[in-house]
Fold this sequence. Notes:
heterodimer; A: alpha/beta; Enolase-like, domain 1; B: 7-stranded mixed β-sheet; 6-stranded mixed beta barrel
Amino acid sequence: MKEKLVLIGNGMAGMRTVDELLKVAPDKYDITVFGAEPHGNYNRIMLSPVLAGDKKIDEIIIHDLQWYQDNEITLFTGKTVVKIDSRQQQVIAEDGTRASYDKLLIATGSVPFMLPIPGNELDGVISFRDINDVTTMIETAKTHKKAVVIGGGLLGLEAANGLMIQGMDVTVVHRGYILMNMQLDQTASDMMRSELEHKGIHFLMDYDTAEFIGQDRVEKVRFKDGSEIDADLVVVAAGIRPNIAVAEASDIQCERGILVDDTLKTFSPNIYAVGECVQHRNQTFGLVAPLYEQAKVCANHLANMAQAKYISSATSTKLKVTGINLFSAGDFNGDKTTEALIFKDPAKHIYKKIVVRDNVVVGVVLYGDTIDGNWYFSLLTEQTDIADMRETLVFGKHHHDAA
Amino acid sequence: MTKAQTISTTCPYCGVGCGVLASPQQDGSVLIKGDKTHPANFGRLCSKGSALGDTVSLDNRLLYPSIAGERVTWDEALDKVADGFKKVIDQYGPDSVAFYVSGQLLTEDYYVANKLMKGFIGSANIDTNSRLCMSSAVAGYKRAFGSDSVPCSYEDLETADLIVIEGSNTAWCHPVVFQRINQARKNNPDLKIVVIDPRKTATCDIADLHLPLKSGTDTVLFGGLLQYLSQHNIIDNEYVANYTEGLFEALTASQALASIEHVAEKCGLAADDIATFYGLFAKTEKVVTLYSQGVNQSSSGTDNSNSIINCHLATGRIGKPAMGPFSITGQPNAMGGREVGGLANQLAAHMDIDNPEHHDLVSRFWQTDRLAKENGAKAVDMFNDVAGGKIKAIWVMATNPAVSLPDANKVRDALKSCELVVVSDCELNTDTTQFADVLLPAAGWGEKDGTVTNSERRISHQRAFLPAPGQAKPDWWIINQVAQRLGFDEQFNHQSQADIFREHAALSAFENDGVRDFDLSAMADISDDAYDQLEPIQWPVNKDYPNGCQRLFTDNRFFTANAKAKIIPITVHAPINSPSEQYPLILNTGRIRDQWHTMTRTARSAKLNGHIPEPIVEVDPQDAIQWQIEDNALARIESEWGSMLARVQLSSGQQQGNVFVPMHWNEQFAARSCVDTIVNPVVDSISGQPESKHTPVKIAPYQPHWYGFILSRVPLVLTQSHYWVRIKGEQFWRYELAGEDKITDYTTWAQSQLGVDGEWLEFSDSGAQRYRAGKVVNNQLESVVFVGPSHELPTRSWLSQLFSEVSLSDESRKNLLAGSPGGDQPDVGALVCACFGIGENTIKDAIACGKAKSVEDIGKLLKAGTNCGSCIPELKNFLISK
């Protein structure tokens, strides 16, 4: 008689855990998956290419419904789990569907942060999170002209780029001066901005949104300084929050996210959690790499091969945003105790900055040419003394191969 | 395209006087080859000669006459010169004016200049830059032979069994003679070569014995040799008795040098080495002593020459094949200048001012009653007189005294203060032309036509193969025009250079009958055609030697009153300024392989700039430690007379306590780089030749705030930095820089140097005070600038190559500011072979990989060393140090 594993959340982190589990213990569990969306499991990262018209939706599906059947996994789509009864070891969905478990895995991911301002409920005010958002944008672009994206982060810029390609006149509204400030410094941000402006995207930097105005559909965006711009569509990409609704409702220990230990176990028996919904050693997550790492470790424990521990290491970010290669890691802004090695070739849209402290790399940001990103990252993580390489460090690894 | 015409002419550089074939091409370039039929070189050329084609461009050419910087007509300029000189002469007398001329004038130019000053202005204030190069040799010959007669021929070097090379880096300064000696060595395994030089130079490469004697001890070494020869009965008593006088006195004078140990101690040499040298000299009949500036540029210069000549006279080794004392000159027409009397203590045609018969003879020949009666001011005195106001008008022709005279700062002040400075030159900007009130454009090499005489008395026709550009005129025409304006029309109405040559030859023949060595009587009525066709010929050319004369004194008769040669008693004296606590080092100066004089021509050739691109100071490694100076860093060299900067090159060939600095650099090419600003202005009391190879100096590290370099496709006007060098490369200009002030805003600074246009690449590491920038225009590299806290900057060679890339590749662009391609891509390194542009690393790699085991292998693999051969000594060093 197999044990029952229930997974809440049919997203990338959860299903990756299932994949890993099937690899190591294919016959250990009867698996049931609850997904809020009406699809199979798909690659959320690829929503931007879909919006940009580079990919079709079926191209970004990881596991279609057939796959669940073939692997004898029960999939409930379009069912949001609202309660966990940890005494009876059952989960309950909105529509009353119940499933009992021996082991439970929560992978509810994150929810977009919706600005708490008037008009945020108007038609045409959306976020950029799932296939539904993307189809909404593509449809709107056919009938409307003016799009406003709130937030100049990674998602915001990809939305803006996609909407522009879909033919809309796009303005990005950003609260600060540095776009993608989690990944870029001022110089890189300025280069990014001028490249996108060159493509036709408008930017309002240091603008604080006050209100979305309209009858039932949004028509204008008003800012704290009183100024306004027209808007047929507003995409709010002001950040994400761990989705802990069901966990909180079920008295599972949460702070910003669901608290997990190094084995991805929550503080409730037989309940695990992975992905953007968790908080591990006071850290929450937004990029895919650590999620996959968590999936591996979690699967390992679900298979009772209790060896692996999840250690959230320093991470580097390697991105291709609107066709621009970016790499960053560590403290790439530096402080008064650091020195910066900087290379610029603006005409070729290339910028590299290596931040060192006492001849040890502590941060890197690469714009346009990211080939040596991993090498710099290894120098950073290994604390290599770069005194002897310093003169040609910024020009790449091949200057130090021969030596 | 029609077959280009080929003109046979001669090289404008050293005194070897090589024959050159010049073929002007349709595209304006000139194809240069060695003349296989010319007896000086039989087709060989050195690196400088081979690159002559690069030097005929018009950049920085002086094309029009000017007064106070304003362009004027020839008439205005010539009137100004004539009136100016006339006024001064009328008011202060003939000795208040002077000509300072040059061993690069043709004989015909030289002749009329000398005739005008001595014969008609009536002063002997005409002297020449040859004073700086061989006047001691002249004085030595005259004391011994009664005439300025070089007895030998190059052929004597090829048939000798012993060649003593003293005070000459023949390999670099007379490369083709060196090649002939080297060939002789291959043909005759018994040929021994002894090099006497404080430095271990490239010439030592072929030496069986190198004697690195203490600077200024030559008379000790040769005084000792004379003693040795007498002790061992090598004296040719019959010859001495019949044809010489003074041996006894000479031996008495050098008595103190009878012991080799004593000589060894004084010269700082090993007694055994001296014994070897003396033994070789004693037992070898066929011995030529070849000597040059190391002997001449000394306060004992004249004694040095005579101490050599003494040994040849005492052994009768002169006037016979394969033997003799052979002074080799530094300039293409130093000898021609001597023949016309271009020195202030000569009259004309090897006659003397203070000889009443000569004075009368020349007065009658020139039909003048104004002929100068007393010797004029020799070079150094001449500029002292300018400084002191005694000389108020000076005319400088084809030379650059602001660079080449000792205590050059004083010379510059003198020219600044002088009432009238006339300069005729083919260069627009030189350190000297900047002081000119009147600038006269002279025809340059390839444009002027006339004769020159090389070191073996061989007169050759240097022919024009290009039209004179702008309003440039031959020097003889300019001089004659001024002479006519001074009222000497009929004496200066020559219609051609041939006219002048005939007069010159006739003067040499005038009442000669063999009493004077210089005799061109057989050429006195040479036709214009014959003059045009003139084949190289060694004087005398007279009834006895209608086809010239290879060797003098074959009859053992000399040009003294009693026809006997004089063996001169010599008292040893040390250089005038000896090292002190304050100035503990001895500065030696000289030439490098690929530059000529003040670089006005050779610096136009990228090929020639590659070998030693910057002013250097060669320092012994031990001294470097003591004075805390680093290889390739900049050092400050200071004497009582001034200070300069140079790039340090550690050299084991350098004697401890000695430093060497090349003579070439000046304000046109580098800041604070002119060595003559620190050379002591002391001279040989007889010859007046400066002691340019011995100045007490001190050396210290120069510590600028930053070092840097710029490479640019076009020449730049840089904001003044404390140290700069300008170097022409293939398709780029290179600037080496150093500054004493902190650069506060690198980008602004860089843009002010390179200009703001174009695509900019920048690399900055403020923590390491490192900044680099590159400028790309139309996808071609336009310029780069590298700045750092020390002299350790990336090699320039890879960056230099990028200027020949039609469009800058992405790879090159990525690595541009790294200064190297990275990975294992080769970097050719510093240029070694100028002819084929082969770099040090390329050669070392070929050796390292075992492909090249000999100089011949290197030649087969890379062609390096297979043309002029000047780099072969360096190739050998690589093979050895491998």
